[in-house]
Design a protein that fits this description.
Aspartate Aminotransferase, domain 2, four-stranded antiparallel β-sheet, seven-stranded mixed β-sheet, 2 domains, alpha/beta, about 40% helix, single chain
Length: about 400
């Protein structure tokens, strides 16, 4: 009998009861705006910032409306202006080059390796084209952060980390998002803590933190923050920095705080699912798994594999066969972008010369979400279905 998976690849876990209760308390108060506080009240947004900064070992944290807003805010805060060139990954999602383009700056794409991380040789070759690298830890894959930071420091590149897929991940014990000048995180539904939309920004740089706070729309109320620099840091910045409103509200922060306390446990749950699928796919002829270095403590909320040099029509057939058995796979090699699977050559507002080595990798990437609503038995079943269908068509 042919096995079929009947679960949903877009169904997330419910918000914890503690988060629901906290959200109801905010709704009953009527005070959703982050600066609308009762006498002596810190507010959920400021408390979330404080708690996330402590978790990350960072000096400062700012909660904002989305991960994409965090990226653009960070770029503005480090001084990127219209016309500047900003290096970023060729393998990423559209909000990353979109954040650069939203400032009128120009994305310069850097190649991808078979480990799905930024190509350090290509980065070295292009380092003189920009002063900032917006580094995307795409799909949770961390580059060699020691080598990358050494290269960037030597070449005068300031690093902003896009950690939308690496909240809870580490490189040699260092939390992802703390190697560069700024780390940017997302709390969108498909990320590691869920408020529908939302973002967090961390930094140890007082000037950057102050600029980001004013940019987010602090209305000179920055002293109500618990994870911001001192008032002295704002003395001149408050006059010269525009308001580009993008604050988080208390409702979303209230939902997030209980989830943040469970993050380590949830990361372990994702990794158990990732490792179950990975073990089930290992040794499948024609299918290449992504090597994870020992220095990387990853969060396996999705899994990728490569179908290197497969004909397009064979990959399309594989996806259709898997879909018929309930397994939803996404492919980054299609001629037209579908959903989130666009590539650097899809973004016509940021033209780039072809990168043949990277194009070979991008064309082969198959991607699959691993929501925590899947059991380990579900994951083993999914791996059996993929393995069988790869063997059937490959």
């Amino acid at each position: 009998m042919t096995e079929v998976f009947t679960g949903s690849f877009t169904q997330q876990e419910p918000i914890p009861e503690e988060g629901i209760s906290a959200a109801l308390a905010v709704l009953r108060s009527g005070r959703l705006h982050r600066y609308n506080l009762a006498e002596g009240e810190a507010g959920d947004v400021a408390l979330l910032e404080q708690e996330f900064a402590q978790l990350m070992g960072a000096k400062y944290c700012l909660a904002v409306a989305s991960g994409g807003y965090a990226l653009a805010c960070a770029l503005r805060a480090v001084g990127v202006v219209a016309g500047d060139r900003v290096l970023t990954n060729a393998f990423t999602l559209a909000p990353v080059p979109g954040a650069i383009a939203s400032l009128g700056a120009v994305p310069v794409f850097v190649g991808v390796t078979q480990e799905l991380t930024i190509d350090l040789e290509d980065l070295a070759a292009k380092a003189d084209q920009a002063d900032v690298l917006l580094l995307s830890h795409m799909r949770g894959h961390l580059a060699d952060m020691d080598a990358l930071m050494a290269l960037c420091d030597a070449r005068g590149l300031r690093v902003i980390e896009d950690c939308a897929h690496t909240m809870g991940a580490r490189w040699r014990g260092r939390p992802s998002g703390t190697d560069g000048l700024v780390g940017c995180f997302s709390t969108q539904t498909y990320k590691h803590i869920n408020s529908g939309e939302g973002g967090l920004l961390v930094t140890d740089d007082a000037e950057i933190a102050a600029r980001a706070t004013v940019l987010s729309g602090s209305y000179m109320l920055f002293e109500r923050h618990l994870a911001a620099p001192s008032a002295e840091s704002f003395a001149q910045i408050k006059y010269e920095t525009p308001n580009v409103s993008g604050r988080m509200d208390h409702l979303r922060a209230a939902i997030l705080r209980p989830q943040l306390r469970r993050l380590q446990e949830q990361c372990a749950n994702w990794n158990a699912r990732y490792q179950t699928v990975e073990a089930g796919l290992r040794g499948t002829p024609g299918l290449t798994l992504v090597n994870r270095p020992e220095a990387e403590s990853y969060v396996g909320s999705s899994i990728q594999f490569l179908l290197l040099d497969w004909p397009d029509e064979t990959i399309v057939a594989l996806l259709a066969r898997c879909a018929a058995r309930g397994v939803e796979l996404k492919w980054f090699g299609a001629a037209e972008p579908i959903g989130f699977t666009s590539r650097y050559d899809s973004w016509h507002y940021a033209p780039s010369a072809p990168m043949p080595k990277s194009d070979r990798v991008l064309k082969s990437i198959v991607d699959m979400r691993l929501p925590l609503t899947f059991s380990l038995q579900d994951c083993a079943l999914i791996a059996r279905i993929i393995k069988a269908e790869v063997s059937a068509v490959g």
